[in-house]
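Incident log, structure service

09:12 report received: a user says their structure output differs between two submissions of the same chain.
09:20 pulled the input from the user's history:
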Amino acid sequence: MQRFRIETAADLARIAERPYRDFMAHGTVYDALADTAARHPDRPALTFIESADPAMPPRRWTHAALLDEVRATANLFASLVPGEPVRVAMLLPAIPEAYLTLFGGETAGVVCPINYLLEAGHVAELIRASGCNLLVALGPDPQLDIWSRVPALRAACPGLKQVLAVGACPEGALDFNALRQAQPRDRRVPPREGGPHDIAALFHTGGTTGAPKLAQHAHGNQLHAAWGAAQMYRMTEHDVILNGFPLFHVAGSFVYGLSALLSGAEVVLPTLLGLRHKAFVERYWDFVAQYRVSLLAAVPTVIATLLSGPAPAATPACTRALLTGGSPLPTELASAFERRFGLPVRNIFGMTECAGVISIEPLLAERVPGSCGLPLPFTEVRAFDGERPCAPGETGILRLRGPNVGPGYTEAERNAGTFTDDGWLVTGDIGHVDAAGRVFVTGREKDVIIRSSHNIDPGVIEEVLLRHPAVAMAAAVGAPDEYAGELPVAFVSLRPGQQVDAEALLAFAREHLPERPAVPKRIDILDSIPTTAVGKVYKPTLRRVATQRVLDERLQLLGLAPAVTVVVDEMPKGLRVRFGAAPGLTAADRARLDDLMRPFPLAYQVTPPSPAPAAPPGSSAAA
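09:34 re-ran on a clean worker, output below:
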């Protein structure tokens, strides 16, 4: 496949003047992998570091061997459901078998990668909604418990015909690796013809709660996202990328996975636990040097961890950049990493609904603070004020359209408000596109803190707090308030060995925040900021904690506590408030409770008392 030099919007315009086939010649992921294997058969493709002990040799596959295993996996899946469409659910960490399941499953049919940290009931909903008839899961393993959910999944998902175990294989399951080894590797049996518009995968969206929402990916969507990322990063067959992202995350699968494989590069997988393996992270730079890693891939929380840990005597000469995505990148965090390690940091803006990537900061260009870079080739990004396109630099809701945009959700009624009839994907992100074509994301529509009709971008608060030398991570959310609607509050975690109190952090915020309304009403210091499985800050938990605290305080002020208790729950569509009322609550007290809740846009009910969920550990605060 042809490579392109991308540094400015003018480079993108020149690419778009050519036929699309010059950019992406293949119709399916399998065809593209086969082309790479033909061009670079003996180069390393996939390397799995099994242990945090550097002396233990890794497992390794060349591009030719990887293609053989993808074919064998596709043949295995087709043999297990003869006469039926192949639909594979995957509950695997980022290990080699996950790559084989993803690409082998897409070769034979459709794959649904599922977050293996979800509870069994939610996983079962996703399996049923996706119509999967095969399940591939990690067998019993002392490092990571996934298999304990499988019996409940079998009982709840009658459509599953077979369950395959990777690693230890309990009774009643099929041994994935043993059965794959018995399959032919020189051809697909039976062959499955496909094209760029055929559905390859279903990826669930919307965090870890709520009804299943499955975004469809066609082969062409994944190929465009992966090859576009490869061009932005100037990947070649000489690159080695350390990819600790799980494959249920589109960045792990395509932005930092398939992109490297299509380039003929090598993907290094950092143990079964990925970058959650404490011993591996402690020796991170040793492994980078040992495996001659040229590209690092990490979410901002991992960047903060690396900044807090020991630095190498010298950054390995083989390493040329750190690539990040999965959550907004604070400018100060990127600058601190660049200063300490001398490596450029490149940001990304993406969504599950477009195979993981919308825009990327090109490696050849200078990093512009706050920018998410340029759109992929053949991809248009615009900000809209309602249905009016915004002028360059004008803030609105960002939309995109291009070959990376998927065909929508499996349930078409969910497309409204996200996928438009004229091909736009509405991101829900607030931002703008400047005159040079660079994309800026300044907040989520739902994340904006609205204080007395004044819109406050939580990122502004977070950026300032991250400048404090003791702060490792920061997150700001809105706490409900009767008069202002919302007041900003912040949560931080500290660097190892650092100490600071919340009053000092508030004073720092007052001094450096550009607008007084953005000064947090309160700052909490936590042992750690709650995150998702890929290290993305999980703000629903922080909103719940902030709301719980406000309502607890109001009950005390009204003299209703302890006769009345309150529990705030995270629900699919927001927060739910449950009041526990002791026997004998008077009608007057109930009226006071109703008056208390009237200014808050929160659903609530009065129930028998029940214990409140735990707050994040290690909390201290200043009001």
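09:41 both user submissions now match this output. Likely a transient worker issue. Closing.
09:42 reviewer note: The chain has three domains: 9-439, 449-526, 542-618. The mean pLDDT is 91.
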